[in-house]
Protein: Nucleic acid-binding protein
Organism: Candidatus Symbiobacter mobilis CR
Amino acid sequence: MDKNRLVVIADAGPIIHLDELGCLDVLADWEKVYVPNAVWQEVVNHQPRAMDVFSSLFIRQNTVKTSPLVTALTPLYTLHSGEQEALHWCVAMGNSLLLTDDTAAPCYSTLQINRLMITGYVPWSIFNAHVWSKFNKQRH
């Protein structure tokens, strides 16, 4: 991976929820989305088909060198294994963007991680845009 390029790393929530809405294609704006192994497992457990739909986009990543700061913050923010691995990757890569739907924003700020919060509002907005687009096409 090129250290100067922005590395997009995903937590499970955005992949799961965007797939539920049939909107995983919004992630195709990035050439690759790196998915830590623990995140991959979580997605496969909750939304198995999500990893198959855009298999060329998602790059499964094994565990990376752990960050002592992420390890120290884990109990404070009750981070599960997927979040921990994603944060370890972000710290290790430096120039990264974390796709997340979590509320542990102070943790991300402490780690100085760029993040794109894909919360309920964003997928709902995307879903509405798709629905209205289809509705307008049917009307004309």
